[in-house]
């Protein structure tokens, strides 16, 4: 039997099912456990430092220092720095909002409150985007399948694949929606003086940690459970 015939009879395991494709693509996009940890550590340190010392500049320096340390480790190991750079970008956007609040005469507490606004806006936008892709019948997860199969839209011809990808996309959106529902009203209350700013910042800080990496892991666990139930052949997606 020729090598070509053997390769046809033994398809690559990593792409033989839609579920395997999605699992691999999600792991790549999130960087696995290490990537998620690198994204969470700087934010967690900022929040903890602020809650302990109420010193905004120190909290920012600590979070940046942690991200830089993680970046150095990645560079030494010659591995991808994508997820550390994502964390640094998030800190930079938060700092920009802090400076905007300061330029408008905001107090240090109000500046600390401003640090949380980019995350709320990001989660709001991401929730809307993912929901729209599901409602129009083109769930975002489907394009992960398309990026592997070589045809970005062939998966849409298979009803089972569309249904699977829609379920996974809703699960991906759920953590973002929960963060907005929990943090948005607190941020608004703090800015409207309906709640003490210190209290709002403290609760937002705790929620940012509790609803960050742990909530994402819970959502991924739910997605893994869904992916573990079925074996949808990639060939049914139009490959």
How do you describe this structure in short?
This protein has 239 residues and is mostly helical.
Structural account:
- With 239 residues, this protein is an all-alpha fold.
- The protein has two domains: 30-106; 116-230, no CATH class.
- It is built from eleven helices and no strands.
- The chain has helices at 3-9, 18-30, 32-53, 56-77, 82-103, 108-115, 117-135, 140-149, 159-191, 197-210, 213-229.
- Helix 7 runs antiparallel to helix 9 and helix 9 (159-191) packs antiparallel against helix 10.
What's the helix and strand layout?
Elements: H1 3-9, H2 18-30, H3 32-53, H4 56-77, H5 82-103, H6 108-115, H7 117-135, H8 140-149, H9 159-191, H10 197-210, H11 213-229
């Amino acid at each position: 039997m020729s090598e070509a015939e053997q390769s046809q009879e033994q398809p690559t395991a990593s792409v033989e099912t839609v579920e395997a494709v999605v699992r691999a693509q999600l792991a790549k996009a999130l960087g696995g456990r290490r990537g998620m940890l690198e994204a969470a550590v700087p934010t967690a340190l900022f929040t903890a430092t602020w809650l302990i010392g109420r010193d905004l500049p120190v909290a920012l320096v600590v979070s940046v220092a942690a991200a830089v340390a993680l970046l150095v480790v990645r560079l030494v190991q010659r591995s991808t720095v994508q997820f550390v750079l994502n964390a640094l970008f998030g800190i930079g956007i938060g700092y920009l909002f802090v400076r905007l609040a300061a330029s408008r005469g905001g107090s240090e507490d109000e500046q600390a409150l401003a640090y949380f606004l980019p995350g709320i806006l990001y989660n709001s936008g991401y929730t809307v985007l993912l929901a729209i892709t599901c409602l129009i019948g083109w769930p975002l997860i489907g394009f992960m399948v398309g990026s592997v199969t070589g045809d970005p839209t062939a998966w849409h011809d298979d009803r089972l694949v569309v249904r699977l990808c829609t379920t996974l996309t809703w699960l991906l959106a759920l953590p973002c929606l929960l963060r907005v529902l929990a943090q948005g009203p607190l941020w608004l209350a703090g800015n409207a003086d309906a709640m003490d700013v210190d209290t709002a910042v403290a609760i937002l800080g705790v929620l940012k940690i509790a609803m960050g990496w742990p909530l994402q892991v819970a959502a991924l666990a739910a997605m893994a459970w869904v992916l573990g139930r079925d074996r949808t052949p990639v060939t049914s997606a139009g490959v």
